[in-house]
Write a structure and sequence with these properties.
Structural class: mainly beta
Low-confidence stretches: 1-43, 409-468
Strand content: 35-45%
Length: 468
């Protein structure tokens, strides 16, 4: 088991580029499937496709000192191996991938695809994975590591951790950084020169898709399980007994355990009223080296260097109704575009219409569409899409797609100066007025949604538009 040390946050403040506000329209139509507030809250993680390990960062397990050279001179920062405690049990070891961004002690992290972090657009991300697999702590024979790297006199854990972190930063940040200790610097040079491109590792556990929809009397799905664990358990919806919703396989048999590639379904009774349900899949496994971890706050993104047996989980939700549009909404971070991709699937018998950035989109009955929503860098977003009868779909997180080094390349503000607090409010738009409705098509009014912003505030305004 990993030891615990107090966190040593990296100094400096992230330079934030200002961006125009994104104007987001909610998805709504007559007959949209609904669930009560608590059910909607439970859908949040599933809607954003989160799966795998969730952990809280503690401190640096082993570290040295690195020197970052920039336009403002040299700056010393701690460099080494962090540890995280996993929710449900387990420990992780990680290195940072944004040298100038502070790592906040006790920040919560989620296992995340590279595409949801600054690693996504980084052509050298695969070299970072090679470094992790060929250095400390994956290689714990430090004498052998020192010999391979040509380091005379051997390596301590602190030197190995510092040298590995420096090599990671050179590829993650494309910045001029060196280890203060000569032994650690020699290791960093060796790792940088020897690194080869490796593919991104698969998630420890994910469900695809994380959100499904359909009609009562049908098996909604399939939801495919992807995991490196030997097996996983399935927890059915908490109200399954009362509502009659079952989790079944292709043959309609109840499912309580699954393996990689298993397909599961929500079996909804024919007489079920419109509603939602959620299932959870949980397993115990080692998280693959090279998996990215993104924070819920402005804390330096991490990449996995080692894992004990850890608890991983993923959720999927289902919505159903007997008529009208029946949408399923999910979102993924798209760092290549600096945006959030919102995917809407309409399993209903009526079109599903929404407006985004002054553009109206319509998904035909049985259709699917993905809309890319540009968001400001390093700003927390937290917006809820609401519909009839209490339907709520929440999306929250922080779009952390650029390293501090990249941000500094297009700003002249001094490194240590904090980012200004910013409120970005879109101008009123007459095209987003509430639309009329008949008795059969409920009016869904516009709703303003405030986003919690660290170091500032960004307001996204949600407008829902029903079929006229």
């Amino acid at each position: 088991m990993f030891s615990s040390l107090a966190a040593l946050p990296l100094p400096g403040r992230r330079a934030v580029r200002l961006a125009t506000a994104a104007l987001v329209s909610a998805f709504a139509a007559a007959g949209v499937v609904t669930g009560a507030g608590p059910a909607a809250a439970a859908q949040e993680a599933a809607a954003q496709g989160q799966g795998g390990a969730t952990a809280t960062i503690g401190g640096l397990k082993a570290h040295g000192v690195a020197v970052v050279h920039g336009a403002d001179g040299a700056q010393e920062v701690p460099a080494g191996l962090f540890e995280m405690s996993v929710e449900g049990g387990g420990m992780l070891q990680t290195y940072g991938v944004d040298v100038q961004n502070p790592t906040q002690k006790d920040a919560k992290y989620h296992e995340t695809p590279w595409s949801g972090t600054s690693l996504g657009p980084n052509k050298d991300a695969g070299r970072i994975r090679w470094i992790l697999q060929n250095s400390y702590p994956q290689v714990n024979d430090l004498a052998a590591l020192a010999k391979k790297a040509g380091v005379r006199g051997g390596l301590t854990e602190q030197e190995a951790a510092a040298g590995t972190q420096v090599a990671v930063w050179r590829y993650s940040d494309d910045t001029d950084v060196e280890a203060l200790d000569p032994q650690a610097e020699r290791l960093a040079d060796y790792l940088e020169k020897t690194a080869r491109v490796l593919a991104e590792p698969a998630a420890s556990l994910s469900l695809d898709p994380p959100v499904v929809s359909g009609r009562p009397g049908e098996r909604l799905g399939p939801v495919t399980v992807r995991t490196n664990a030997g097996g996983a358990t399935v927890t059915p919806p908490v109200d399954a007994t009362a509502g009659g919703v079952r989790i079944v396989d292709k043959q309609g048999e109840p499912v309580t355990s699954v393996t990689n590639g298993s397909q599961i379904f929500f079996d909804v009774p024919e007489d079920a009223a419109a509603g939602t349900a959620e299932l959870t899949v949980q397993a115990s496994t080692t998280v693959p080296v090279g998996r990215a971890f993104a924070s819920e706050s402005r804390s330096q993104a991490q990449i996995l260097a080692g894992s004990s047996e850890s608890t991983v989980a993923a959720t999927a939700t289902a919505s159903w109704a007997d008529q009208g549009a029946i949408p399923a909404l999910s979102a993924t971070k798209n760092c290549a575009e600096g945006a959030l991709d919102i995917t809407a699937v309409n399993k209903g018998d009526e079109p599903f219409t929404f407006e985004l950035l002054d553009t109206e989109y319509t998904i035909a009955a049985g259709g699917t569409r993905t809309v890319t929503v540009p968001l400001p860098e390093d700003r927390a977003y937290d917006f809820t899409i609401r519909g009839p009868a209490g339907f709520e779909q929440r999306f929250k997180g922080v779009l952390d797609c650029r390293t501090q080094s990249a941000a500094l390349s297009d700003t002249t503000r001094p490194l240590g100066e904090p980012a200004p607090a910013t409120v970005i409010t879109p101008a009123p738009n007459p095209n987003l007025a509430e639309t009329g409705s008949s008795g059969a098509t409920p009016l869904i009014g516009g709703t303003a949604i405030g986003l919690v912003v660290i170091g500032g505030a960004v307001l996204l305004f949600v407008r829902r538009k029903s079929e006229q």
